[in-house]
Amino acid sequence: MPTTTPTPVPTPASAPHYPEQLTGMDILARALKNVGIENVYGLVGIPITEAAYLIQAQGIRFVGFRHEQQAGMAAATEGFLTKKPGVLMTVSSLGFLNGLTATANATVNCYPMIQISGASDPTMVDMNMGTYEQLDQFNTAKGLVKAVFRCSHAKDIPSAVMRAYRAAVSGRPGGVYIDMTTPALGEIMNAADVEKLFYEPVDLYSPVAPNAAAVDRAVKILTSAKKPAILLGKGAAYAQVDDKIKTLIEKYSIPYFPMSMAKGLMPDDGPLSALSCRSTIMEQADVVMIIGARLNWLLSFGKGKWSQDIKFIQLDVESQEMDVNRPIAAPVVGDMGLSLDAILAGLEGKTMSADPEWLASLQAETKVKGAKFAARIDSARTMMPMHHWTALGVIKPILEGNPDVILINEGANTLDDTRDAINMSLPRHRVDCATWAIMGMGMGSAIGAAVATGKSVVAVEGDSAFGFSGMDFSTACRFNLPLTVVVFNNGGIYNGVGVPLDKTSDPAPTTLDIRARYDRLGDAFGAQTYYVQTPDELQKALTESIASKKPCLIDVQLAADSGAESGHIGYLNPAPLIDIKV
Q1: What is the dotted CATH code of the domain comprising 21-195?
Q2: Looking at the whole model, is its pTM more than 0.85?
């Protein structure tokens, strides 16, 4: 047979080559990873849902909440506990506004935080065209936060994230807002061009040393004091300079008293603690060194009981904090660690002039007041139904026996009484509503503390305060966090026996529901729950809950007449608001 020549197979043309491409959402996820962000808190929806998935793909934990305000409180709490910006991500419009409450609160309280919100095309917003969720978020945020940035193009995203990080942690820390527009999120760039946008960040925080003359002045005033004291604020706790503060206090035997979120920076029950002698220090101290605190409403603006002859030394990273409400004799402006290093060096070899009777008198006062306080708790043990102090008499030894548990605390009487009752022995283990006294931070801060530290958390909540954020207990359950929530239910704001002033069938403005069963909210999400009516039941429930390291909710039934109006503003309200015989 003749040989047949095969028909040649045509060589296919080379397949077209397209460069790898990335969206602005990819770039955002990588930008967060590039600056070391480990957790993002938020609530997804248009236009950020895909970005949340891509953030997870970068190995960053995305903690999805039920409300943006609580996600923001979580981010702010992470910032306070770690000195790194907590990150909140929200949708546009009302989602942005919900989150902005927490970002503004972070700014006032000096917590580093970054809020990133999806935003409408600014050109359409500027022309008031009625685009989807139209709101000028950039200018809305500008007056409430430390810095604002707008990303109109994908190429702007890495720079915006880097600059936001620097702004959040530098100088006086605070909240920063990034307006992440839909054009920037949806823009597509070639991967090779994206690579050129990234670089290794250098010195994201650069500490600034204080002026040498300021340090010398502070040392001179401190060593000349006859009745010195040190006031510790949450800024001192945030700075994580615990060893330097301990050296200053113990080496020179200076009595100290902490603000609520500085409790535990030095032990509340330490031999130099003057925690229960605040009024005496205000009236009698001749020199007070303020470390990371403000002479604001929490300290009577430096007036009221404060001696007119007192000299203040103030350590702060922000010069604008000086001379607020009272003249500061020795302002020391600079990084807290460098300032304390300089002061300790200046004190070396010098002798303090303190009157030994000053410390002895404070210690004697502390002993007397401690005995009275113990008697108060003891006298409440048998009160039934339980009152605040009955329950706190149970909680106090359990939490003090588990010092590494982080305590979150909010409410009216619940906040005040818990702060007074429970001694802290470790720094940054107490978080509360802080400078603005804002209710509704509880679940967000508790979740943020658990995620950021991995430690067990106990949130002691008033029933009113829990109502602001209780639904986000479900977030703790979804992420199986070691969080125990203790709800003090006295049936109202302050208490549950308010009496309406006018003839009406409606409940009083301060009345909630003494019969409410908050434990059943935990049941809905699979948590371990307890409804307790006696001290023994509460002791068992709290001990078991902490040991479980799982989400638990304890509904503590209190008497309706437990608690009184909080905040010393009773003169603003006509009487009678409360009839305890009801």
Answers
A1: 3.40.50.970
A2: yes
